[in-house]
Amino acid sequence: MSSTITLGAGAELSLADIEAVAYGRAKVALAPAARERVGAFRARAEEALERELARNPGKRVYGLNTGFGSNFRLYVSPSELKQLQENLILSHCTGMGPPAPAPVVRATMLMRAASLAQGHSIVRPAVIEALIAMLNANVIPAVPRYGTVSASGDLAPLSHIAAVVIGKGRVLNQRGEPVPTADYLAEAKPAFTPITLELKEGLALNNGCQYSNAWGALATAMMRRLVEAAALNAALGVQVMRGTGRPYRADLHALRPHPGSQTIAAWVFDLLEGYELQDAGVDAKFAYDEKIQDPYNLRCAAQVLGPCLDLIARAEKTLLIEAQAVTDNPIDLNQSLDGYDLDLITSGGHFHGMPLAVDCYGLLQAAGVMASLSNLRCARIVDPTRNKGLGPQARGHDAKATESGLMLTEYTTAGLCNHIWGLAMPSHMLSLPTDSGQEDHVSMAANVGMRAYEAAERLADILAIEMAFAAQAEHVRGAEAGKHAEALKPAALGKRTGAALDAINKAFPRVVSDRELSWDMMSLAEKVMSGEIVQATGYSFTRH
Question: Which residues does residue 346 pair with via DSSP β-bridges, in sequence order?
Answer without folding.
Answer: 331
